[in-house]
Write a structure and sequence with these properties.
elongated, single chain, mainly alpha
């Protein structure tokens, strides 16, 4: 997802939740409505804090990527041309169970 699109949807959802919560508070004076409005405001605050942490993390990632040099390509390791005495020294494996 594009960063601008993510920020747009986070901001839009925060504003929508705040508008709905304020509308509920203005329209109704019931305790359940006030509880729902406070819950919506809480969700809006959580999304806002998450958006801030997302933005900071993305900027740190971009900064770290800009500082890091591109990785060097290493040649593949040479094939094993030497003897492997450990294979000859190991204990024999137990027989396999029939399946």
């Amino acid at each position: 997802m594009n960063d601008r699109r993510a920020y747009f949807w986070m901001g839009t959802s925060i504003m929508a939740l705040v508008v709905v919560a304020v509308a509920i508070l203005l329209i109704s004076s019931a305790t359940a409505a006030q509880g729902a409005a406070v819950a919506l405001l809480g969700v809006a605050c959580v999304i806002a804090v998450s958006g801030v942490f997302y933005a900071v993390g993305r900027s740190e990632d971009a900064e770290r990527a800009a500082r890091q040099p591109p990785p060097e390509e290493r040649p593949p390791p040479p094939p094993h041309d030497h003897e492997r005495p450990a294979i000859d020294r190991r204990r024999p494996r137990p027989p396999r169970r029939p399946s």
